[in-house]
Amino acid sequence: AAKLTPARTLLMFDNGNNRAVAYSPPLPSERRFSRGLEYAVDEAAGTVEIVWEYGRELEPPYVSTAMGDVDYLPQTDHMLLTLGMVIGTASSRIVETTHTMPAEVVWELALYDTGGATFYRAERIPSLDVL
């Protein structure tokens, strides 16, 4: 679910499966983490820079092995992450953070194991806001 933002940066969700470089052995599960990323790409210079990130700093880390997503929310300048299949504490999470480094959580919803139900590519619908 990679996508371009209005600022022409690239958003991606890194599931962090195995957290290893290709052809290397996977890292132990306690060193894995999932994260949302925003990259600034300079095609002329051939460079890529991380300009926003959320997930690496969490203790314990969230590890979402599949169905992750990240969206930019232009109405609030926030980021919305979907962690679809979280190992351990909950089966799914939706996390809204500030668009800052470090990111701060402004809203979170966890779906605990209900027999396999998960979130997939959550969307923020402003017309449904009740705050």
Describe the structure.
- The protein has 131 residues and is mainly beta.
- 0% of the residues lie in helices and 37% in strands.
- It contains no helices and eight strands.
- β7 (92-98) and β8 form a beta hairpin.
- It is globular and about 50 Å long.
- The relative contact order is 0.18.
In brief:
The chain has 131 residues and is mainly β.
Task: List the topology elements.
Elements: E1 3-4, E2 10-14, E3 35-42, E4 47-54, E5 69-73, E6 78-83, E7 92-98, E8 105-111
Antiparallel strand pairs: 1-2, 2-3, 3-4, 5-6, 6-7, 7-8
Distance N terminus to C terminus?
29 Å
Strand content: 35-45%
Shape descriptor reads: globular
User: Structural class, please?
Assistant: mainly beta
| Biggest β-sheet: strands ordered side by side in the sheet | 1-2-3-4
Rg from Cα: 15 Å
Residue-averaged pLDDT: 87
Outline the biggest β-sheet.
Answer: 4 strands, antiparallel
Order of helices and strands: EEEEEEEE
Q: Report helical residue fraction.
A: under 10%
Would you identify the regions where 5 or more consecutive residues have pLDDT less than 50? none
How many individual β-strands?
8
Q: How many individual helices? A: 0
Q: Could you list some keywords that capture this structure?
A:
131 residues; mainly beta; 4-stranded antiparallel β-sheet; 8 strands; 37% strand
